[in-house]
Amino acid sequence: xxxxxxxxxxxxxxxxxxxxxxxxxxxxxxxxxxxxxxxxxxxxxxxxxxxxxxxxxxxxxxxxxxxxxxxxxxxxxxxxxxxxxxxxxxxxxxxxxxxxxxxxxxxxxxxxxxxxxxxxxxxxxxxxxxxxxxxxxxxxxxxxxxxxxxxxxxxxxxxxxxxxxxxxxxxxxxxxxxxxxxxxxxxxxxxxxxxxxxxxxxxxxxxxxxxxxxxxxxxxxxxxxxxxxxxxxxxxxx
Length: 238
Hints:
The chain is of the alpha/beta class. Helix content is about 35%, strand content about 20%. The strands form 2 sheets. The chain has an 8-stranded mixed β-sheet.
């Protein structure tokens, strides 16, 4: 599911942005750039990382008139490592929002989980980088929401927990709730700042609307401090 496609996910993102005073948004697996274009209206600085050259070009073209967006054609784990190093060298202390959606998977019985799951390599690149909120898309959190499963290996907390602890041992964990999901329709995107009803956007909406497994996707939020759960359409991960 595209991030911008669920209005409740956007609402959660903006509330987290405001609680932690976040100016910088990083997205891995930016695909055709619809989401980073949308968030260029919500954050001061946007970085979109895409390993596929064709999609990187499409994304770059989409955001070329948005002066606060940079699209990079490179491996997401390399970018995250470089960005974290630069952040430390420039003595920054602000909190970043990092959305992980580059869920490539390399099959092979002889490969380690880190070799198979891109998200594990991304999290490894962020080890010790405490000043961030992480959002992991396509997460298996149950309750009628759908996540990725490759070779009977689900993208769940058991898979990620050791890597997350190495980023910030004090992370608090939350997941979305199916009943609160608000998928966009072709009608609802009209006049939404940052969402343009072009062919790519309409195609995305129609594609996801076909099946619940595409429409209702799990999201894991990792925050450096607790959220006031009464203000969010989330539940704390048990």
